[in-house]
Structures are given as C-alpha cells and as structure tokens.
C-alpha cells in the first residue's frame, strides 16, 4: 500500500473489506480500474489485470456477462497467482448476474466483491427477486457488494414514482433535480433492501454515476449527507484524452476536497492503441497532487519560455519521470517513504535554483545564453555541477544514489 499524506478531513464512513483492501473508515482513498478485454479470454484478461495492478490499481473490475466469462474467473485468479499478482477482482454484473452467480459457484467464491446495478437486475417482481438472489449469494460467500446506480439505466418505476411525488409539491423541482434525487433514492433504498435481506451494512459500498460534472458533485454531496456507507466516485463516461482527464479531475477533486469519496475510478476512453493503465496513473496523480496520498516520486518541471529555446530540459523531465515510474515497483519493495520524494527539472536561472532547492533533488539546466553548467541541489544544498554531453545519465545516477542513501531499507521478509 502506498503512503498516506495528512490532508483533508474525510467524511466518516463504515470500513468495508474487499480482499486485503479496506474501503472507507480510516483507510486512504483506494484507486481502482476496470479491464476492457473479453473476460472469457483468460490469458489476455489476466495480463491486463496484472498490468493494471502493477500500475497501482488496488482493485480491478472485470465484466461478468456470459457463462464463459463467469467460468473464466477462477482460471484468471489462478493465472494471476502464477504471475505473482494478488489483486482483488470485482465482478461487474448486469441483467443475468443472478443466474451467473448461481450457476458458477467458483465465480461467486473467487470474486472479492460484486457490483450490482439496481436499474438493470430485472423489471417489476423479477427485479426484486433477482436482486434478492444476488444479495443472498453475496451473503452466503461473505462478499461485499457495490450497489452502483447509473443514470443511463435508472430504475424507471422508481423515477416515475419520484416524478409523481415531485408533481404533488407546492413548488415542484426541475427535471435535473428530480433525476438527481432519483439517483440518491435508488442507491439508499437498494442498500436498505440489501440489509433487510441479511447483508451487513459493513459490506455495502454505494455509487451514483453520471457523466456531468455538476450532477456528480450535487448527487454525491446529497448521498454523503444521508448515509455513512463508503462511496465510490467516478464519472460513468469521462471521455477521451485531456477532456476525460479534466472532467474526472474537476468533479472528483471538489468532492475529495470536501472529504467525500472512499474509492475512485477515472473512466477514460483509451486512445487507439493507448494503454489502459493511463486511467490508473491519472487517479494516482489526482490524489497525490491534492496531498491525499503518495504513490510515486513527483517531478516538477517548468513549462518553458523564450529563455529555454532548447528542448533538453523537457526531454530530461520526461526521462526522469519515466525512470522513477519504472523503478518504483522495486523501490516500493526495498525502501520506506520513497514515494514522497520530489524532483525538479528546471530550464533556466530565473526560477531554476529556487525550485531545485525546494525539491529533494533538483537540477537547474542552462537557458538560452546561460553558461553551459547545471547545478544539482539535494535537500536544499548544492552538491555538484554537471557539464558536458552526459548530464541526463549523471543526473539519473544521482537520483538512484539519493534513494539508496536516504530512504531506509525494508527488512527482508520470508
């Protein structure tokens, strides 16, 4: 588990145990993600689960939509074990989850948590029966559940009821307010139904996912006011590239700053051929830049200006960022506290030395017209000046030596 930074006071919630990970209570905000492979493809799904876990996803959700996908859960779990990856798997169920869990007990037992959408477990009397079946199976195997309401599949009977109640108000609310209220009511009533069926409240996580930033903020503020279940944050469709990153950060950062949210997922649409792990990195960087958690050393770099016509400082900043991410899995095993390290790669003399002194390790590269020297600062003190064609390699070696010298080695475990 990565380091935790003292910061915003969190809203008090019940702790829910998911495998070896705790959501809510005093636990730090948990990062999770979801595969986009066909779950029935055991090898590809296990590989992607491992990639996400190694990138820092502490929970990984997989689609369980067919008998073949349900049958694959156990072998995927076994393959991950052979790969040395121990990450809790969450099953994402829609429409036929009651049948899949009943027909595939190894799937029901192998998953660490079930995600249930109350809007699409069935209609009318079947909805109640099929929801009850899933809750009863979760109780039998002592599994927690996330009751995940989604505005794209909101229970239409419940929405009609809320609309009728609103119409009888002396001053009816607008359609947006009615939709938001229906989302909150769906989550709370479903949780109450689960508890009535025997599900302990300490095994329930709630979410109400929408695509609009202001909708998400308003809904979660109200949901957090009316319950103490841990809450899963995330836009249901954030989008691609910078739009998805900005939308997710704009919505979740507001809530996290208010102490709302116990686990997050950044639902990015990958660029064609892009890595699924990007959403994990964005979630980590969001939490780390807010001071809520620390995952990997942070690299500060100036944006560049007319004083920095060379691209060398940009290339070095990118190289160092990639280096620390590459080394972090090993550093995390060997050293305590290295995730809190900060590095600065600055491009000229204006802010370079000052920023470098504020970082654990910083380098101030020469700008346009400046002397071709690069002073290096460690914990505020200048330690060496680099020159020549091998500044990048020498600075990388200084970073590695600093980690080895500064952060205590963990005791070897058997």
UniProtKB/TrEMBL annotation:
Example GO molecular function: 4-hydroxy-3-methylbut-2-en-1-yl diphosphate synthase activity (ferredoxin)
- UniProt entry keywords in alphabetical sequence: 4Fe-4S, Iron, Iron-sulfur, Isoprene biosynthesis, Metal-binding, Oxidoreductase
Chain positions recorded as [4Fe-4S] cluster binding sites: 302, 305, 348, 355
Q: Which reaction does it catalyse?
A: (2E)-4-hydroxy-3-methylbut-2-enyl diphosphate + oxidized [flavodoxin] + H2O + 2 H(+) = 2-C-methyl-D-erythritol 2,4-cyclic diphosphate + reduced [flavodoxin]
Q: Which InterPro entries match?
A: Dihydropteroate_synth-like_sf, IspG_bac, IspG_bac-typ, IspG_C, IspG_TIM, NO2/SO3_Rdtase_4Fe4S_sf
Tell me its cofactors.
[4Fe-4S] cluster
User: EC number(s) in its UniProt entry?
Assistant: 1.17.7.3
Top-rank lineage group of the source organism: Bacteria
Pfam families named in the record? GcpE, GcpE_C
The IspG C-terminal domain is annotated at 299-400
Which positions fall inside the IspG TIM-barrel domain?
13-283
Pathway field: Isoprenoid biosynthesis; isopentenyl diphosphate biosynthesis via DXP pathway; isopentenyl diphosphate from 1-deoxy-D-xylulose 5-phosphate: step 5/6
Which family does the record claim for this protein? Belongs to the IspG family.
Kindly provide the name given to this protein in its UniProt entry. 4-hydroxy-3-methylbut-2-en-1-yl diphosphate synthase (flavodoxin)
- Organism of provenance: Candidatus Accumulibacter adjunctus
């Amino acid at each position: 588990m990565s380091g935790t930074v003292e910061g915003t006071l969190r809203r008090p919630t019940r702790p829910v145990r998911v495998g070896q990970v705790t959501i809510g209570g005093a636990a730090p905000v948990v990062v999770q993600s979801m595969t986009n492979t066909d779950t029935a493809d055991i090898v590809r799904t296990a590989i992607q689960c491992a990639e996400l876990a190694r990138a820092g996803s502490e929970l990984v959700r997989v689609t369980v939509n067919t008998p073949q996908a349900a049958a694959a859960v156990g072998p995927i779990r076994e393959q991950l074990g052979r790969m040395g990856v121990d990450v809790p798997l969450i099953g994402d169920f829609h429409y036929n989850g009651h049948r899949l869990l009943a027909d595939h007990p190894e799937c029901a037992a192998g998953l660490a948590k079930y995600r249930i959408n109350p809007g699409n477990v069935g209609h009318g009397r079947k909805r109640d029966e099929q929801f009850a079946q899933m809750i009863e199976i979760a109780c039998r195997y002592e599994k927690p559940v996330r009751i995940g309401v989604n505005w794209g599949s909101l229970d239409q009977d419940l929405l009609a009821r809320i609309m009728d109640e609103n119409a009888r108000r002396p001053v009816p609310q607008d359609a947006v307010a009615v939709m938001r209220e229906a989302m909150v009511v769906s989550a709370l009533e479903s949780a109450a139904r689960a508890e009535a069926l025997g599900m302990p409240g300490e095994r329930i996580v709630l979410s109400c996912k929408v695509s609009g930033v202001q909708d998400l903020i308003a809904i979660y503020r109200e949901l957090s006011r009316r319950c103490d279940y841990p809450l899963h944050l995330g836009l249901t469709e954030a989008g691609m590239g910078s739009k998805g990153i900005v939308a997710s950060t704009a919505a979740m950062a507001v809530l996290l700053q208010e102490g709302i949210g116990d686990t997050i997922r950044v639902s990015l649409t990958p660029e064609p051929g892009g890595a699924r792990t990007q959403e994990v990195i964005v979630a980590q960087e969001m939490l780390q830049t807010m001071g809520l958690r620390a995952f990997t050393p942070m690299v500060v770099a100036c944006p560049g200006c007319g004083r920095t016509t060379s691209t060398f400082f940009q290339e070095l900043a990118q190289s160092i960022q990639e280096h620390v991410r590459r080394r972090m899995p090993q550093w995390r095993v060997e050293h305590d506290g290295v995730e809190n390290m900060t590095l600065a790669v600055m491009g000229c003399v204006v802010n370079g030395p000052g920023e470098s002194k504020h970082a654990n390790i910083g380098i101030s590269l020469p700008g346009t017209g400046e002397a071709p020297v690069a002073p290096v600062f460690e914990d505020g003190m200048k330690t060496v000046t680099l020159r020549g064609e091998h500044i990048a390699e020498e600075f990388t070696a200084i970073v590695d030596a600093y980690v080895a010298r500064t952060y205590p080695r963990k005791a070897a475990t058997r």
